[in-house]
Amino acid sequence: MSVAEFSNRSVGTRQNADILKSEERRENQAFLGLSTPAVLLILIVVFLPIFWLSSLSFFNAAGEASTENYARIFNSALYRRTFVVTFQISIAVTVICVLLGYPLCYWLTRLPDRRAGILMVFVLVPFWTSVLVRTYAWLVLLQRNGIINSSLMSIGIIDEPLQLAHNLTGSIIGMVHIMLPFLILPLYATMRSIDTDLVRAAVGLGSTPRGAFWRVFLPMSLPGLFAGIVLVFILSLGFFVTPALLGGGRVQMLAQRIESTITVYANWGAASALGVVLLFLALAMIWLMHRVFGLDKLFMR
Fold first, then answer.
1. What is the pLDDT of residues 143-153, one digit of tens each?
2. Distance between CA 145 and CA 149 in Å, rounded?
3. Against a cut of 0.70, is the pTM above it?
4. What Cα–Cα distance (Å) separates residue 120 from each residue in 51, 59, 111, 261?
């Protein structure tokens, strides 16, 4: 190859590279222009209320700037008890949803597609009914003269009615019923995408069916499982209607405390401080799950 040909080819290569960079720059500008309205909408709808809430939390009932609201949260035994109850219920609901949802999803993945699709409709049915209606239905079922206590007494399992409503037990039962689909949907989608030939291959290579499940199927289902856990736990932290009705006033979660702070005491600053603390606790729990389980690696499939 002559020097002139080599020089012409080098010039052509640089020109092609410049053209590619120019096209990439135009694509980035077009993407930025198209995404700007959505980014602005998110900033207005999401971050502006958070900023307003955070700023409001630094004003006391007299309208003076202070850290009184946060000091009250960390120094008050009542508020600390509310946080403890909120996390107790959220953790209990999440654990029960995992214990019920994982076997159910695994069983559905073993069924033919048509039968599994029909059964999944029953999982989605609760979404078609108001949370308030479902909570009142559980209140009727769990009360002392309700269907559950009457059935247990009629078959001789118990001699007197159980206290299933207006306490922690009733709140957890009602919340599990509402939260369970939020764990089943991402977990079932992940399980359906798992190639079952991998499990059969593990069995063919000498593993027991139980060993193939623990070493092959379970690790591959973890992305859906952890996605469901995050959804259930974070949603449970801010739950209001179900514990307010099924708790009967004996169970005070953080959302109820915020509502009573506004309606009873008209203290928007204290309520805002509770909301800010709850927000940071939820973000801290997500960060902790990320550090322990590596959620970014689990979801990148």
1. 888 888 888 88
2. 6
3. yes
4. 40, 49, 11, 41
